[in-house]
Design a protein that fits this description.
Strand content: 15-25%
Oligomer: single chain
Largest sheet: 3 strands, antiparallel
Number of helices: 6
Distance between the termini: 49 Å
Shape: elongated
Helix content: 40-55%
Radius of gyration: 22 Å
């Protein structure tokens, strides 16, 4: 969308300022209202820590605003420590007083595979589970499984053989 598509509507001092985004008008500062509503939903337990939030599209539809407005609200909540973005899983409710955010899924997978190699359950030359196996076992995307393999390759523990799979080094 070009900058020309954004026009300001309603400039009288007593009127609420509205920004037209495409065919939809969004009240100026609407993201603050959404931030407050989502903060309340998280702190009151509708989204307890670890729970996946609705998608940007679903929240945009629920609040009647554009996805960029929702993104801005979610960014504020993430800065407050009430949300954490997890690659391959989306945004999860968190708690600002929790000592640490949960590890991203790819880190958990690479840690599990590393431990299996270090315990000797997978030996030099053994084939590793496929991306498809990891996506099924861990409930993650193929991209997340690929990230886990990249961590292990960077550590020098595994190698990829084109067309054959990944193997313990």
């Amino acid at each position: 969308m070009s900058i020309a598509a954004y026009t300001v509507v309603g400039r009288l001092p007593d009127e609420k300022r509205t920004v037209r985004v495409g065919s939809r008008a969004t009240p100026w500062g609407a993201y603050k209202t959404i931030t407050d509503a989502l903060r309340r939903r998280i702190t009151e337990g509708e989204f307890p820590p670890g729970t996946q939030l609705l998608s940007e599209a679903e929240l945009g539809s629920e609040y009647g605003v554009a996805r960029n407005t929702v993104r801005r609200a979610l960014a504020d909540l993430e800065n407050e420590g009430l949300l954490v973005t997890m690659p391959g899983r989306g945004r999860l409710a968190s708690s600002p007083d929790s000592p640490q955010s949960p590890a991203p899924a790819f880190r958990r997978i690479s840690t599990d595979l590393r431990a299996t190699i270090e315990r000797g359950e997978l030996r030099r030359g053994d084939v590793l589970p496929s991306e498809a196996d990891l996506t099924k076992d861990y409930g993650v995307s193929r991209w997340t499984a690929r990230q886990a393999f990249t961590v292990l390759e960077d550590a020098g523990l595994i190698e990829t053989r084109q067309g054959r799979g990944r193997f313990v080094k």
